[in-house]
């Protein structure tokens, strides 16, 4: 398979994961729904939930602009943005620095890895069971113990999101 085509396919899968209501675009409403689900499933306090919501809204504003229901991210816009991020070391570093925070949101017991139970709760937050196959196809789950480790997650993100076409051909 063409590595560049595979890269686009993986990015499409990431976009699909974020499209919580499955309407083909990602909006702030998808992010708010995801935040609400994470808060409920992870038994967050009202304060934790509010803080998480603010972080997600700040990220949206920083990367996508104004916060309104009519501002949306298509697959094409997402792919273009990732291309832009790939060329900007500061933005790449920001994405990587965000991963431990998001990982800890799912790693409820703070063990350093996401267990099957935590993973199932994460899937519950994502919505449908067909997203389970998407996550597995991204290569994030450790085959030996069926957990997700932060280092593996960072490695996969760096490999698939920030890989240049020239690097993919090697």
UniProtKB/TrEMBL annotation:
SUPFAM superfamilies: EF-hand (SSF47473). Signal peptide: none annotated. Residues 94-129 form the EF-hand domain. PROSITE patterns: EF_HAND_1, EF_HAND_2. InterPro entries: EF-hand-dom_pair, EF_Hand_1_Ca_BS, EF_hand_dom. It comes from the Eukaryota. GO terms for molecular function: calcium ion binding. Pfam families: EF-hand_5. Keywords: Calcium. This is Sarcoplasmic calcium-binding protein. The lineage of its organism: Eukaryota, Metazoa, Ecdysozoa, Arthropoda, Hexapoda. The gene is SCP.
């Amino acid at each position: 398979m063409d590595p560049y085509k595979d890269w686009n396919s993986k990015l499409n899968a990431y976009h699909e994961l974020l499209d919580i209501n499955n309407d083909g675009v990602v909006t702030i409403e998808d992010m708010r729904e995801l935040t609400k689900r994470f808060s409920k499933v992870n038994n967050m306090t009202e304060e934790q939930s509010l803080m998480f919501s603010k972080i997600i809204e700040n990220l949206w504003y920083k990367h996508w602009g104004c916060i309104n229901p009519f501002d949306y991210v298509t697959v094409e816009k997402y792919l273009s943005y990732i291309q832009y991020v790939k060329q900007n070391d500061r933005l790449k570093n920001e994405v990587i620095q965000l991963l431990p925070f998001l990982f800890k949101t799912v790693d409820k017991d703070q063990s350093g890895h996401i267990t099957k139970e935590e993973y199932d709760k994460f899937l519950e937050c994502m919505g449908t069971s067909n997203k389970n196959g998407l996550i597995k196809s991204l290569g994030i789950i450790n085959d030996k113990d069926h957990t997700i480790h932060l280092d593996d997650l960072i490695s996969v993100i760096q490999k698939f999101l920030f890989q240049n076409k020239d690097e993919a051909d090697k």
